[in-house]
Specification:
CATH topology of the largest domain: Fructose-1,6-Bisphosphatase, Chain A, domain 1
Number of helices: 8
Distance between the termini: 35 Å
CATH class of the largest domain: Alpha Beta
Strand order of the largest sheet: 4-3-5-6-7-8-9-10
Radius of gyration: 20 Å
CATH superfamily of the largest domain: Fructose-1,6-Bisphosphatase, subunit A, domain 1
Largest sheet: 8 strands, mixed
Mean pLDDT: 89
Oligomer: single chain
Structural class: alpha+beta
Helix content: 25-40%
CATH architecture of the largest domain: 2-Layer Sandwich
Order of helices and strands: HHHEEHEEEEEEEEEHEHEEHEEEH
Strand content: 15-25%
Number of domains: 2
Low-confidence stretches: 1-11
Length: about 350
C-alpha cells in the first residue's frame, strides 16, 4: 500500500461502509434516505453471499444445477443461490422497483408501490467457471434511478450507463472487498469485510487508476478468431522496447471481477474484444460493462468497446452483449488507435 493510501486509511480508521454511505446522504441536499437504504441492502446481500461462498464446499452448493440460463450457460448452484439472495434482500424495504439479472429471462418486479425510485441490475456471481476451483469470483451491480411514478418496465433499465446512480462490485477472494462509486465527483472507494465483526471497513479510499500500466489481460485462446487490428495490438504489447517499457506482463484470471479489480488498482488494460465467434462481443452491457465503465471513469480510467465509450451505448435489450476494453487511460487510448488503423506497430 502506498504512503498516501496508508495515510488516508489512518485518517479514516474504523469507517464502516454504512457510515460512509450515511455521510454521503447527509452531504446531499433533499436526500430522503431511500438511496442510502438501497446501498445498505446491497452490502447486506454481499455479506450473505460471502458467507455462502466461504461454506460452499461444505454445504453441497458446488457444481451445476442442471439448468441453462438465458445466456445459454450452465447454471452453477452458487449462481442460483446468490441470485436468490440478492432478489430477496433487495425486496425487503420497498425502495427497489424491479431488478434485472443475468440469470433471469425478464425483469422481476419487486413491489407494487409505484413510488419506488430505483431499479437494480446485477450479475449475481461472476466467474462461474472458476467457482469449483477456488479462484476469485464476484458480484457486479448497477443502480438506476427511475423517472416518474408509472409502472416499472424494461425501459427503466434500457438507458445508457452514464445515467447510473451508482455501480460497484464485490470480489470474493483472499478477502471480501466491496468497491463502490456514486459518480465521478464522489470517486471510487473500496471496503474490506471483517468477518469477526460483520462489517465492511474503508480500506481503499479514493482509488485512482494509474495513467499507464505494465500488464495486459486478454484471453489469448481466442487469438485465432481476432481481427487483424487486435492481432497487431497484441503483437505490439508483447514486443520488447525499453523506451516504452514493453513487453507488458500477461495476467488473465478468467473472472471479469478479478481481472478488472487488479487493473483498477494497478493499471494496465483488460480487453475482451469482439471476434469471429462473438461479433457483437461477449460481455453483458447492463450487468458487466456498464458498472465497470462507470467505476473506471470515476477512478480516472477509460472504458470502450474498442472504439466508442461504453457509457454512451444505448441499450436495445436486457441481455445485450458488447466488446469491453478498460483500464489506464493511456493504454486504452493506444488500443483504440490500433482499432482505428491509426497505429499498426
Amino acid at each position: 500500500m502506498s504512503d498516501h493510501a496508508s495515510g488516508a486509511q489512518a485518517v479514516r480508521a474504523g469507517m464502516t461502509l454504512e457510515t460512509f454511505i450515511m455521510e454521503g446522504m447527509f452531504g446531499t441536499p433533499a436526500a430522503t434516505g431511500t438511496f442510502t437504504s438501497l446501498l445498505n441492502q446491497i452490502s447486506f446481500a454481499a455479506k450473505l453471499v460471502t458467507s455462502q461462498v466461504r461454506r460452499a464446499g461444505l454445504a453441497n452448493v458446488l457444481g451445476y444445477t442442471g439448468e441453462v440460463n438465458v445466456q445459454g450457460e450452465q447454471v452453477m448452484k452458487l449462481d442460483e443461490l446468490a441470485n436468490e439472495t440478492l432478489i430477496t434482500t433487495l425486496g425487503r424495504r420497498g425502495h427497489c422497483a424491479a431488478v434485472a439479472s443475468e440469470e433471469l429471462d425478464e425483469i422481476q418486479h419487486m413491489t407494487n408501490d409505484r413510488r419506488a425510485r430505483y431499479v437494480v441490475m446485477f450479475d449475481p456471481l461472476d466467474g462461474s467457471s472458476n467457482i469449483d476451483v477456488n479462484i476469485s469470483i464476484g458480484t457486479i451491480f448497477g443502480v438506476m434511478r427511475r423517472e416518474g411514478e408509472g409502472a416499472v418496465s424494461e425501459a427503466d433499465f434500457l438507458k445508457p450507463g452514464r445515467e447510473l446512480a451508482a455501480a460497484g462490485y464485490v470480489i470474493y477472494g483472499s478477502s471480501t472487498m466491496l468497491v463502490l462509486s456514486t459518480g465521478r465527483e464522489r470517486g471510487v472507494h473500496g471496503f474490506t469485510y471483517d468477518p469477526t465483526v460483520g462489517e465492511f471497513f474503508l480500506s481503499h479510499e479514493n482509488i485512482r487508476t494509474p495513467e499507464r500500466g505494465s500488464t495486459f489481460s486478454i484471453n489469448e485462446g481466442n487469438a485465432c478468431r481476432w481481427g487483424e487490428p487486435v492481432k497487431r495490438w497484441a503483437e505490439w504489447i508483447k514486443a520488447e522496447d525499453k523506451a516504452t517499457s514493453r513487453p507488458y506482463g500477461a495476467r488473465y484470471v478468467g473472472t471479469l471481477v478479478a481481472d478488472a479489480h487488479r487493473t483498477l488498482l494497478k493499471g494496465g488494460i483488460f480487453a475482451y474484444p469482439a471476434d469471429k465467434k462473438s461479433p457483437d462481443g461477449k460481455l453483458r452491457l447492463l450487468y458487466e460493462a456498464n458498472p465497470f465503465a462507470f467505476l473506471f471513469e470515476a477512478a480516472g480510467g477509460m472504458a470502450t468497446n474498442g472504439s466508442d465509450r461504453i457509457l454512451d451505448i444505448e441499450p436495445k435489450k436486457l441481455h445485450q452483449r458488447t466488446a469491453l476494453v478498460l483500464g489506464s487511460r493511456e493504454d486504452v487510448t493506444t488500443f483504440g488507435a490500433f482499432m482505428r488503423g491509426e497505429r499498426t506497430a
